[in-house]
Known about the structure:
Elements lengths: L8 E9 L9 E9 L3 E5 L6 H8 L7 E6 L2 E2 L5 H7 E4 L10 H6 L4 H4 L5 H11 L28 H14 L4 E5 L7 H14 L4 E6 L10 E6 L2 E6 L1 H7 L2 H19 L5
Parallel strand pairs: 3-8, 3-9, 6-7, 7-8
Antiparallel strand pairs: 1-2, 1-4, 4-5, 9-10
Helix pairs in contact: 5-6, 8-9
Amino acid sequence: GGATPLAESVDVRGVSYRYPGAAADALSGVDLHIPAGQIVALVGENGSGKTTLAKVVSGLYAPTSGTVSWDGAVVSTDDRALLRASTAVIFQDFVRYHLTLRDNVALGDAERLMGPDPRLDDDVRNALALAGATFVDGLPKGLDTILSREYSGGIDLSGGQWQRVALARALFRASPLVVLDEPSAALDPRAEHELFADVRRLVTGRAALFVSHRYGNLHLADQIYVMQAGRVVERGSHEELLAAGGVYSSLYRLQADAYAAGLSAQPSEA
Length: 270
């Protein structure tokens, strides 16, 4: 099935989730509001429930209790395929296919690879350009370059370059919701900063859920939700949360100092 347009928002209400066999909930009583055309950031330490919540939003997990709604219509457990079809997801362990660059991007919407599609290459190039994959022009065989050293004529990419390919794969899907889970985990501070700066441009006209344990660039988000132990403990804009002087404010200041030191010392990888 194709993607369902998003006119208003995706809403999570009172959602709890418990992994099979676990003694405690990974999420408990979570509310989350993702308006069309906005970037919402989820932050918190590892184990706070951010990735679990991202998987509930993208239809990979069904909530144990509570609801996920798309434009006000509750998505039933049986209907999660609607969420999956309408969401482009990049998790931190994104896949590096030992295939051509074209295939690595177009697998974001694999059905299009099956038949003759005269617009395929144009759309692949557009997705790569959007994703900031500027290295493409220097590849020996362009879109036909195999991204693996195991094949003759193949090449490997840097971590930052693979990151851009994974982004292009997600953008190749015409999905109204983009979920990015720790997309900068493999990047040095400068490459991460460039990625965050691009996310604003990338998701124009789409809703985005951006999951991170780093605070340095989150002023780009419209709303930030701070999670601890499976609950939302604070929410607001970057400015509101700094002014509130709570969890976000203290963690942001700690990380910003370390980040500034790292940024001045790091060479760029992208």
